[in-house]
Fold this protein.
Amino acid sequence: MLAYLIRRLFAAVVMLVVIVTVVYCIFFLVPKWAGVDIASSFVGKQADPAAVEGVRQKLGLGDPIYTQVWHFFKGLFVGRTYVGGGDVTHCSAPCFGYSFRSEQAVWPVLTDRFPVTLGLALGAAVLWLLIGVSAGVLSALKRGSVWDRSVMVVALSGVSLPIYFTALISLSIFVFGLHWFDGQYTPLADSFTGWFGGMILPWITLAFLYAAMYARITRATMLEILGEDYIRTARAKGLKERIVIGKHAMRSTMTPILTMLGMDLGALIGGAILTETAFSLPGLGQAVLNAIKNQDLPIILGVTLITSVAVLIANLVVDILYAVIDPRVRLA
């Protein structure tokens, strides 16, 4: 188990270096190939030439790309000082960049909005796992029944309907129609009950989409596993059905579910843009949307890196859970 963990951690570190390098090149090297003045993009089109030249010096855009990547990567751990245009700007570690448009470091913006997105993603994940997996298992066990057909119809609806549509319908019915919720977000630090009440509707709306997908994949996987020889053998030995399903079938069913969970949860931690926009949640998704509107590239770069790291960490946790569920994975 220890050797398996070391291999996975080493692979994660290597992948982190690759992610930082690729993301930086996408934002700084590719536009340069297309003939875009990167310095102008960082300060705005209406900036005077002196300001543009100052930003170019601060970012070191005249240096080789490997030198730029090294300075950016080092800034993540020790901070970075931008010198140019007659002034000095310091960005404390971890420095994910500095927005010269708003005159603020990217990291404080991310940490201010990250708890909102994290709460949305984790709360929705709990709901869609409980509902989706349970519904999928019951549908597989009652294949062809009214329950099975009803669940699959609902699941098909959940997969087909766009999240912004279900979010607006939810607001229309439960906030403006029935007045069950006020539709306002309350920070957790101000009031737990207010925060919980304001997050219920976004959780349910977001979970509806993912629960539908998890129900379908769980049903398909469970039906395949129930036809395996070891399941028939377990039943032939006289084991109770709950032991056959809970101990044997579910262990194999959890593998694809964990794979999906690692990708979905990691991506959502990077910002559920449509959900946060529909419910006016001040999370990373709303931050990146505002940054796109204002062409604030450092914020977009920071959120992109956070999303990539979140997916990397989520998949690392999934790899560890693989080893817990199936010991054979440790030999891979």
In short: The radius of gyration is 24 Å. The longest strand covers residues 80-84. Residues 164 and 285 are 13 Å apart (CA to CA).
